[in-house]
Automatic annotation (TrEMBL):
Keywords: DNA-binding, Transcription, Transcription regulation. It comes from the Bacteria. Residues 2-59 form the HTH lysR-type domain. One of its GO terms (molecular function) is DNA binding. This is DNA-binding transcriptional LysR family regulator.
Amino acid sequence: MFELSHLRCFVAVAEELHFGRAAARLNLTQPPLSRQIQLLEHTLDVKLLERTSRSVSLTRAGHSFLPEARRLLRLAEGAALAARRTASGDVGSITLGFTAASGYDFLPRLITQFRAAAPGIDLVLKEMVSTDQFESLTSGLIDVGLVRPTFNRREVVSLCVVREPLMMAAPEGHPLTRAPEVQLAELDRQPMVTYSPYEARYFYDLLATLFATAGITPRYVQHISQVHSILGLVKAGIGVALIPRAARNLRFEGVALRPLAAGTSPTVELHAIWRPGNTNPAIPALQHTLQDLVTRSDSDLWLDDH
């Protein structure tokens, strides 16, 4: 089988129609160049060049073979370039897990900035709850996750990318919407749509701690996993709810949002996580974009590597 070096030598001679100039172009002497052409002709079992003491010309077979030789060289160069770009992280793909709530604000901003910064890298998006993301991360099914901080930090690198307060959601016209903000004490004995202790453990524990510390007892009427479903039940008048501030981007018709009184809302966090041993060369580009988004944020965020 012929080698790429044979093709390069043939193309150089075919384009120069002069062994001396072709040898100089390839930084060779003429004898090794002639030997390469002979090996190629022997491999193909066809004569490609007519040689005399004064001239070199292509045979009909040589004319036919020249564009194919050029194409093969371009393909080889393209394959090498693609391999180098993949190894350097300029091209490739990253499988990104995300929670539904991260799609209300942070995920769209991340995708927009990352596509501009790394157009050669595809994001494969997988929506799943935080616990499923962690399992998928450790098994290698996803490269990076956007999760609530319910994970074992010793096994991952964690970057806190969002900190936000909770807001109260109530049906329009509800008495609690008359004031510009809500006191926690006003939620005591209020019918409340809250979070599932299974699919939304982070929010369930967050609210349980909040209410226990404040000494109030809402009257839970439903336990739901997703924020948009909770808002639908609030609109139906079943009860009020506490939701992350990013959910205001949903602009749910028939639902009024009010902040909790200053200093009373716990902080809701969203973290980006990845395994330190992941060898995907495209990941550093996403890490750079994540860190850039954090740097631009007004919040006090940090990289936490355990």
